[in-house]
């Protein structure tokens, strides 16, 4: 779970907001996640837990939230799974789970965790969320904890793809950085509370080298955009959850995920959407 406000990790890269060319976001993010997977898992692995389903840095877990409903005996797809921690929890609850990610290195970590735990390996697929390698109507549930959705240029296409692979009556739940975060700089102190960017500026955040080649790209949608993308894909929005930041968490996640900021503004938006029964 990286999220909008941990994104300065590329250090020397130049930061800008500009449109990305076709394929540029996918190339950049695949390379970025491959290069940064080791550091990401080393830094956040403990907080994520090997087999827990954490929705967001606010510490909301699926075993308390139950946004997916009953998972036992259901076919579940995890989108942008990283180390597949959520998928492992789902399998432990009796779900038949498949997990996929764009980054081969993230999937290596998923396999490494399975091996260390000596568990039945989570079925893993390397794929792009905008082109799912699955047949129509084969899953009951789909979920994503900060995976893929902010990292694609065309998130409307992800919504359509998820709708396609879900059975009628299925549910799709995903968490993303709260769109309001787009307006704020990535700072945990009071400077991170001063609006710096337009909420309405949809140009992606891009880290690029001196030749202008993108090394990382993150895409913004307003709350309204996300709701429309879901509706246009045929979903009905069941809930929009904005978890509050528990004071006792302190500054566990770093960057803009500080307790000071969490007291005042939302960090995560969780969309709960249903595909109507036929
Ligand atoms: C912030 S991590 C979230 C992973 C996991 N849920 C977690 O909380 O650690 C984002 C993940 O999305 C993956 N990702 C980025 N773009 C993707 C795409 N187009 N399709 C599938 N996965 C993608 C990244 O490789 C990365 O593993």
Task: List descriptors.
278 residues, alpha/beta, 7-stranded mixed sheet, 3-stranded antiparallel sheet, 7 helices, 27% helix, globular, binds S-adenosylmethionine
Shape: globular
Q: Calculate Rg over CA atoms.
A: 18 Å
Could you list the spans in which at least 5 consecutive residues all have pLDDT below 50?
1-10
**Whole-number average pLDDT?**
94
Query: What fraction, in percent, of the residue positions are helical?
Result: 25-40%
The structural class is alpha/beta
Number of E-state strands: 10
Kindly report the spatial arrangement of strands forming the biggest sheet.
4-3-2-5-6-10-9
Structural summary, described in words:
The chain is an alpha/beta fold. Helix content is 27%, strand content 21%. The protein is built from 7 helices and 10 strands. It has helices spanning 24-48, 62-65, 85-92, 104-117, 155-165, 223-232, 259-262; strands spanning 14-17, 75-79, 96-101, 124-126, 139-145, 166-177, 205-208, 214-218, 236-241, 268-274. The chain has a 7-stranded mixed β-sheet. It has a 3-stranded antiparallel β-sheet with strand order 1-7-8. Helix 3 links the parallel strand 2 (75-79) and strand 3. It starts with 13 loop residues before the first strand and ends with a strand. Mean pLDDT is 94; it is low at 1-10. Residues 1-2, 26, 29, 33, 48, 80-82, 86, 101-103, 106, 128-129, 145-148, 151-152 line the site of S-adenosylmethionine. S-adenosylmethionine is lined by residues 1-2, 26, 29, 33, 48, 80-82, 86, 101-103, 106, 128-129, 145-148, 151-152.
């Amino acid at each position: 779970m990286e999220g909008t406000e941990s994104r300065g990790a590329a250090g020397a890269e130049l930061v800008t907001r500009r449109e990305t060319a076709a394929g540029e976001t996918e190339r950049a993010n695949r390379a970025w996640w491959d290069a940064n997977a080791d550091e990401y898992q080393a830094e956040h692995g403990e907080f994520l837990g090997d087999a827990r389903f954490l929705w967001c840095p606010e510490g909301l877990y699926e075993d308390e939230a139950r946004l997916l409903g009953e998972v036992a005996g259901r076919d579940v797809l995890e989108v942008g799974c990283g180390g597949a921690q959520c998928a492992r929890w789902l399998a432990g609850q009796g779900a038949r789970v498949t997990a996929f990610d764009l980054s081969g290195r993230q999937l290596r970590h998923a396999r490494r965790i399975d091996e260390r735990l000596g568990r039945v390996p989570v079925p893993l697929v390397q794929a792009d969320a905008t082109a799912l390698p699955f047949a129509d109507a084969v899953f009951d549930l789909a979920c994503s904890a900060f995976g893929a959705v902010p990292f694609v240029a065309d998130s409307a296409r992800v919504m359509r793809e998820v709708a396609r692979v879900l059975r009628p009556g299925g549910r799709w739940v995903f968490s993303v950085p709260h769109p309001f975060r787009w307006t704020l700089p990535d700072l945990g102190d009071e400077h991170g509370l001063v609006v710096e960017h337009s909420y309405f500026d949809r140009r992606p955040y891009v880290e690029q080298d001196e030749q202008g080649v993108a090394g990382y790209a993150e895409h913004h949608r307003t709350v309204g955009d996300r709701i429309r993308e879901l509706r246009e894909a045929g979903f009905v929005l069941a809930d929009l959850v904005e978890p509050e930041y528990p004071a006792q968490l302190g500054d566990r996640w770093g960057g803009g995920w500080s307790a000071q900021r969490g007291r005042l503004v939302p960090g995560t938006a969780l969309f709960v959407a249903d595909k109507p029964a036929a």
